[in-house]
Write a structure and sequence with these properties.
Blueprint (H helix, E strand, L loop, with lengths): L1 H30 L2 E7 L13 E15 L4 E16 L10 E17 L9 E21 L10 E21 L4 E18 L2 E16 L4
Antiparallel strand pairs: 1-2, 1-8, 2-3, 3-4, 4-5, 5-6, 6-7, 7-8
Amino acid sequence: MTIPIAAHAQRRSQDSTRSAESTAEAEARLARKAAGLTVGPWELRGIEPPSGVDVSTMPMFYGFVRRGLDVRLALENGIGVWRREQSTPATGGLGGTPGETVQSWVVAQTTAVRFYPATDAGARFEPWVLGGAGLTLGIDDRETTGGGILGGSTGGSGVGIIPGFSLQGGVGTEWWFSRSLALNVGARYQWTRFFEDFGGARTYQGPAYEAGLTYKFRYR
């Protein structure tokens, strides 16, 4: 009877250990499960508009959902949206040219790992480091207006979609001012390469500065 009893006790001990490990793993994953939204400027490097072209940009909006891998690592899926508008006015008279407006939308889907090097889940002030990559779509929306003598040239419009990919890395911090909400402030460098010319260039790169909120999912 001694051997079966000992074997049964050993199996119960192993089951208890596995259960404890599973519980700890689940708690760590839930502690990092969150979603958020940030907004801020993307300052492009190395792209200069042609002479006589008016340029305006929209801030980059970045939304993400993440789940914990352990108490210091989280896997994040996010989408960033940014727009640049370039426009040239139509000119009249003999030899006039039509005006054109080009709205270039960059929609970048990224999968990233967010690492918290100094804190476990639950700290109020949490510095982070992030790195990731993903597919990107460039949406070119062009509209041409009449020009030439008396604006007689015909106008037109069209939308083109150019695929590409993006790499990004960044640093920042989250300050949890409540159990579920944090102020998220950071900076990341995004490098995007399109497979064809998009809005006058193939490579878009530069630092993006962001601020927003993170919401931590809670289950009790």
